[in-house]
Design goal:
The chain is an alpha/beta fold and 107 residues long. It has helices at residues 86-98, 100-103, and strands at residues 8-9, 21-32, 35-39, 43-47, 59-66, 72-81.
C-alpha cells in the first residue's frame, strides 16, 4: 500500500487542502499551551499534540491535517532550529505545486 502524499504547502494553499494531510515549514511566532502560530508565507494556527516540542522564533516542520477553519491539527512536529533559508523553502513549495503530478494527486 502506498503512503499518503503530504504535499508541502504554505498559508496560501490552506483552503485548497482542507481535510488533507500536508507538510508545512514555517517560523514559530507564538506558543500558547496546546496551540501555536507559525509564519509560512502567512499565519497558520496549529493545534499541537503532546509530542510537539517547538521553540519560539525557530523554524518548525509540521505534518498535519488542514481543518475546515484552516487551522492545522498536528500529527508530527519537528524543530528545525534557527538557520533556515525561507526563500529556499518557498521555492520548494512553489515547485511542488508547479509540478504537482510528481508530488501529489491533484484530483
Amino acid at each position: 500500500m502506498a503512503a499518503e502524499a503530504t504535499p508541502r504547502i504554505n498559508a496560501r494553499y490552506l483552503e485548497t487542502f482542507t481535510n488533507s494531510t500536508v507538510r508545512i515549514l514555517g517560523r514559530v511566532t507564538s506558543l500558547r499551551g496546546e496551540s501555536a502560530t507559525i509564519d509560512a508565507n502567512g499565519s497558520i494556527q496549529v493545534h499541537l499534540n503532546r509530542d510537539a516540542h517547538l521553540t519560539l522564533n525557530n523554524a518548525a516542520e509540521i505534518v498535519g491535517k488542514v481543518q475546515p477553519d484552516l487551522s492545522v491539527k498536528v500529527f508530527q512536529a519537528m524543530d528545525f532550529g534557527s538557520n533556515i533559508d525561507f526563500k529556499a523553502v518557498e521555492a520548494v513549495v512553489d515547485a511542488t505545486h508547479r509540478h504537482k503530478e510528481i508530488f501529489y494527486n491533484a484530483d
